[in-house]
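Folding follows sequence. Below is one example:
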Amino acid sequence: MSLLKVENLKVSYGGIEALKGVSFEVAEKGSIVTLIGANGAGKSTTLRAISGLVKPSAGKIEFQGKDITKLDTQKIVASGIALVPEGRRVFSNLTVLENLKIGAYLRKDDAQIRQDIEYVYSMFPRLQEREWQLAGTLSGGEQQMLAVGRALMTRPQLMMMDEPSLGLAPLVVKDIFAIIRRLSQQGITILLIEQNANAALKCANYGYVMETGRITMSGGGMELLNNPKVRDAYLGRARK
């Protein structure tokens, strides 16, 4: 049984079809699956539909064998799916600790919440150093760490990440991808959207290529990385 299965997903915005029958799956627990494609291909819309933030006009989304297509966002989060949104979206006027606690807003297990905050701090020591600092004063990389930490507070089985490296310095991008690998090693499944197709495919077990609302190609991460069509379209000219 696949962890996540998306079948013939269609989403329209004001009569324009953003997704035109998207089907893909995330099969293995702890795997990293990436969706790559140009701006406007429908990648973010796909994540928003899985999260319940936009309602599909057709199709089906299954998580752990259960149909979640019509569930509201709160129930989808409670079922074990977390979204790290594009642009980080931290609460800039709240502290690091307050942001993390917001990630646990559906939970009532106070002792466990504290343990999970300590777990996030073990993953991101810089956040512990800045526990009482306002999130808006953190660097871009630190805000991305906080967005990931906040998502971890929901105890996800599937973490969806929308452009985690966007606008970050190359060294910080390297750190973010190291974090993604570490999360997958700890059994959290990652569904990753990334403009940096090169880094995403190197990191991913499996990848899907999206073009104008459709999946046009799929394969292992390294297989797609070495595919001449993918290289020409998303990675610059194919290397000789």
Summary: Residues 80 and 157 are 5 Å apart (CA to CA).
